[in-house]
Amino acid sequence: DAKTTQPTSMDCAEGRAANLPCNHSTISGNEYVYWYRQIHSQGPQYIIHGLKNNETNEMASLIITEDRKSSTLILPHATLRDTAVYYCIVRVATNFGNEKLTFGTGTRLTIIP
Amino acid sequence: EPEVTQTPSHQVTQMGQEVILRCVPISNHLYFYWYRQILGQKVEFLVSFYNNEISEKSEIFDDQFSVERPDGSNFTLKIRSTKLEDSAMYFCASLDLNGREAFFGQGTRLTVV
């Protein structure tokens, strides 16, 4: 899996949009960008993923640059419950299911009241 | 929402003892994983399992570890002779046929004394 680079930590005011960047300059054409988060020591939680188009779901939006070398996860209206470590992961997604997730150190996002 | 269930939530065991960590994946999922997270460190891949056999394992997953799907619902991780360094959170995850989104359990905290 390609290596990703994320800031170690970020703060965001409650109610504002949290924008979490991720660099993945060596991403391959068949690798997707995935975002997970981990609240305290709970199990990682899937947020969103994308290949090259921007994606949006009920939790977040994912903006991927045209060259696919970087992406941004956007939490549109951050709440205190969004305080967590956010992981940007690139991986191949096929129907074979044996592509493990390789977690880095992630970005520790703190939402400030 | 479907969820992955892990038991027990916390297990304390003496060094050298065998432990079995249990997981009930989401019912129609076909791919299963174990990850671990030592306190303060990254989430690390241990093993993936599909069609009743190991698909991939990490170098952490040595002969002291084994996995099994004894029936149609449970997925277990056995550590034959625990060491102090096995103390960690152990997360089970499962993936559906489309292989897009991994669901993680809430983890078992294993403490070896």
Describe the protein in words.
Chain A has strands at residues 9-13, 18-23, 31-38, 45-50, 55-56, 61-64, 70-75, 84-92, 107-112. Chain A has 113 residues and is mainly β. Chain B has 113 residues and is mainly β. Chain B contains no helices and eleven strands. Chain B has strands at residues 5-7, 10-13, 19-24, 31-37, 43-50, 53-57, 65-68, 75-79, 88-95, 102-104, 108-112. In chain B, strands 2, 4, 5, 6, 9, 10 and 11 form a seven-stranded mixed β-sheet that branches. Chain B has a four-stranded antiparallel β-sheet with strand order 1-3-8-7, with no helix packed on it. The model of chain B has no long low-confidence stretch (mean pLDDT 93). The chains are: A mainly beta (113), B mainly beta (113). The A-B interface holds A 38, 41-46, 49, 87, 93-105 and B 4, 30-31, 33, 35, 37, 42-45, 48, 50, 55-56, 89, 91, 93, 95, 97-107, 109.
